[in-house]
C-alpha cells in the first residue's frame, strides 16, 4: 500500500498506479520533447525568496477577490478535459471539492460530465472555458447555455488554433471520448488511422481563423466577463486590454501546445507590466508548491490556477483527493507567507523575490 501523500507532487505517482497508461499519458504528457512541460516547473526553482522578519504574522489571511468574487486563497482550478477518464466522479467531484475549499473552478469545454450536472452539483462560483467552434452558431448556443446555467465568466482559450503534437497520445492512439454535452450540436467521435483521434477531433471542430477582432463578437453575445487564456507576451497583453477583456490568464497550456515556448512564470512580469494594472492577470503552469504560488503573486499575478495536480488528486482519491491537493497548497502558502513576513496577500510584493535575471545582473 502506497504511503499517504505529504505533498502535491506525490499524487502523480498514485495516479500513475491507478490509471490505464493511455489516460495517464494523456494527463501527464506535453508536446514534442516536453521542454516547456519541464521548464514550467524548473523556472520556479530559479526564483529565490527574500523573507522579511519581525513582522506580526500571528494571523494569516490568504483570501482574495477574483472579478469581485471572494475566495479563500489565490488558488483556482484550471480547466482540464475528460475528467471521468481519471475517476467516475469526474468534474462533479472536482466541483464539489472546489466548493468545499471556497475557490473557483473553471469548467473545461471538454467536460465529461454535463454542464448541467456540474452546475447543479453544489452552490459555488464557477467559470466556463470556451473553445471556439468553426460554426459560430454552435459557439453562441454553448455560451448562452453556460450563462443560463449560472457560470460567472467565460475563459476563452486562444492558444489552440491547432492541437500541439502530443507524441504519447499519438503512440497510444488516444481515443477522444464521446461528450454528451454536444449532442445535437456536433459530433465528438472522430476516428484516426494514423494516431490520436483527439487530434482529429480538434482539427475538424476548432476555428483556426479566430482573431482579436472576434473578441467584440463574444462581447455582443454575452453579458459575462471574458478572460483570455494563453497569453505569453507583453504585445498580446496590450492587445487584450485594447480588446476590452476582463482578465488575462498567462498560460502555455501546461506545455501541451508549442514546445519551447517560455515557462509561464518567466513571462508573467512582462505581461503584468504591459497591462499597467488595468485588468487582473492570472497564471497557470508548473505550480506544485505554496512557494510557487507566493512567487507568482510577488511577480504580479492575482491568483494561480492548477490543473494536473487536481486531476491526479481526483484519480487517486476522487473528490477527497482534489480537496487534499487544494488544502495542501493552501497550507504551504500560509506557511510561506508567515515565514516571509506577509500576513495578507496584499503584503506580498515584488521585493519578496529575486529572479534569475536579477541574480545574473548582480554578478556583472
Automatic annotation (TrEMBL):
Positions of FMN binding: 79-81, 108, 129, 157, 229, 251, 284-288, 307-308
Origin: domain of life: Eukaryota
Family assignment from sequence similarity: Belongs to the FMN-dependent alpha-hydroxy acid dehydrogenase family.
Name of this chain's protein: (S)-2-hydroxy-acid oxidase
Matches recorded under InterPro entries: Aldolase_TIM, Alpha-hydoxy_acid_DH_FMN, FMN-dep_DH, FMN_HAD, FMN_hydac_DH_AS
Subcellular location: Peroxisome
Top-level EC class as recorded in UniProt: oxidoreductase
Originating organism: Acacia crassicarpa (northern wattle)
Co-factor(s): FMN
PROSITE patterns found in the cross-reference section: FMN_HYDROXY_ACID_DH_1, FMN_HYDROXY_ACID_DH_2
Amino acid at each position: 500500500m502506497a504511503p499517504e501523500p505529504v505533498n502535491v507532487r506525490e499524487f502523480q505517482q498514485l495516479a500513475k498506479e491507478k490509471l490505464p497508461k493511455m489516460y495517464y499519458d494523456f494527463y501527464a504528457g506535453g508536446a514534442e520533447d516536453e521542454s516547456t512541460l519541464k521548464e514550467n516547473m524548473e523556472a520556479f526553482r530559479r526564483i529565490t525568496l527574500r523573507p522579511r522578519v519581525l513582522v506580526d504574522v500571528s494571523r494569516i489571511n490568504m483570501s482574495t477577490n477574483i472579478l469581485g468574487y471572494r475566495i479563500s486563497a489565490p488558488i483556482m482550478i484550471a480547466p482540464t478535459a475528460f475528467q471521468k477518464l481519471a475517476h467516475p466522479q469526474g468534474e462533479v467531484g472536482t466541483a464539489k471539492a472546489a466548493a468545499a475549499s471556497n475557490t473557483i473552478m473553471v469548467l473545461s469545454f471538454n467536460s465529461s460530465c454535463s454542464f448541467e450536472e456540474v452546475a447543479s452539483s453544489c452552490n459555488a462560483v464557477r467559470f466556463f472555458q470556451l473553445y471556439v467552434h468553426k460554426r459560430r452558431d454552435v459557439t453562441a448556443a454553448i455560451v448562452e447555455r453556460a450563462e443560463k446555467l449560472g457560470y460567472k465568466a467565460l475563459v476563452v482559450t486562444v492558444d489552440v488554433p491547432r492541437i500541439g503534437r502530443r507524441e504519447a497520445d499519438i503512440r497510444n492512439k488516444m481515443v477522444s471520448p464521446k461528450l454528451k454535452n454536444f449532442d445535437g450540436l456536433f459530433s465528438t467521435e472522430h476516428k484516426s488511422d494514423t494516431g490520436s483521434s483527439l487530434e482529429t477531433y480538434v482539427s475538424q471542430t476548432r476555428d483556426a481563423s479566430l482573431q482579436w477582432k472576434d473578441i467584440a463578437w463574444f462581447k455582443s453575445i454575452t453579458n459575462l466577463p471574458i478572460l483570455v487564456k494563453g497569453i505569453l507576451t507583453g504585445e498580446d497583453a496590450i492587445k487584450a486590454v485594447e480588446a476590452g477583456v476582463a482578465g488575462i490568464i498567462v498560460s502555455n497550456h501546461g506545455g501541451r501546445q508549442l514546445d519551447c515556448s517560455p515557462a509561464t512564470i518567466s513571462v508573467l512580469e512582462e505581461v503584468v507590466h504591459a497591462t499597467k494594472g488595468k485588468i487582473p492577470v492570472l497564471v497557470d503552469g508548473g505550480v506544485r508548491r505554496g512557494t510557487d504560488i507566493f512567487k507568482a503573486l510577488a511577480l504580479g499575478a492575482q491568483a494561480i490556477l492548477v490543473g494536473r495536480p487536481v486531476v491526479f488528486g481526483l484519480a487517486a482519491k476522487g473528490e477527497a483527493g482534489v480537496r487534499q491537493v487544494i488544502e495542501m497548497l493552501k497550507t504551504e502558502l500560509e506557511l510561506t507567507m508567515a515565514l516571509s513576513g506577509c500576513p495578507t496577500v496584499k503584503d506580498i510584493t515584488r521585493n519578496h523575490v529575486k529572479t534569475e535575471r536579477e541574480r545574473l545582473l548582480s554578478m556583472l
